[in-house]
Amino acid sequence: TGYVGAEGGFARYDIAADTWTQLSLPPGDMQYWQLTAAGDTVIASAGSHEQGDATDWRYDAASDSWTALPDDPLGPSFDRMMASVGDHLYLFARDLVPNPGSEEPSLIRTARFDLRTSQWELLADSEVIGGSNPMVVGELIVFPTAGSVDGGQVNNWGRSYPFGGIYDTATAMWSALPEPA
Predict the structure, then answer these.
(1) Residue 6 above 60 pLDDT?
(2) N or C: which end of the chain has fewer CB within 10 A?
(3) CA separation for the pair 7, 135 (Å, rounded)
């Protein structure tokens, strides 16, 4: 996972020739996209819809061009993060809610994109509030941030929600992180 944007560009490195080739950026006026390797392609995703609608893109290396992904089923969201396992791209995001002032926390929701069929599927929501980009470990997608939050005095939700958790792509289920050492 990395980021690309107007300041950094998008390039391919040829190890044998020890050279860089500048590649096209995703279309639009976004300042940056989060890049995710997905099978033999690259996905450029918007990190948030807080500034309005944003498109996610799939890169075609043969033509050095980008194709828009279909709209995901999560709707307007922020803290959007992607991870790839097998032929699937997983999108994790939190609903846009007033902050401060939300009655409930905005927890991570999950959708899966099939890279072969270009279809989205809505999956299990979590009890995880999020705190870091996910890491893929086999069939698991791990959000490794320890700790929790209860909303504090201004937005107290009546209980604590963990920052981290584990999403099992084989069972489509969430579980808690083990207790830290």
Answers:
(1) no
(2) C
(3) 26
Assess whether pLDDT exceeds 60 at residue 3.
no
H or E stretch covering 148: strand 148-149
Half-sphere exposure of 22 (CA within 13 A, CB side): 6
- For 79-123, what is each residue's pLDDT tens digit? 899 999 999 999 999 988 766 556 788 899 999 999 999 999 999
Per-residue model confidence as pLDDT tens digits over 122-139:
998 999 998 788 999 999
> Position 9: which residue type?
G
The neighbouring-strand residues paired with 22 are: 11
The DSSP symbol for 178 reads P
Buried residues in 80-97 as b, exposed as e (16+ CB within 10 A): bbbbbbeebbbbbbbbee
Rounded to whole angstroms, how far apart are CA atoms 133 and 47? 11
The pTM (predicted TM-score) of the whole model is: 0.88
Type of residue found at 64: D
Taking phi over 0 as left and psi of -120 to 50 as alpha, with beta for the rest, 138 belongs to: left
54: left (phi over 0), alpha (psi -120 to 50) or beta: beta
What are 70's two structure tokens? 């279909």
Strand 140-143 to strand 135-137: parallel, antiparallel, or no bridges (unpaired)? antiparallel
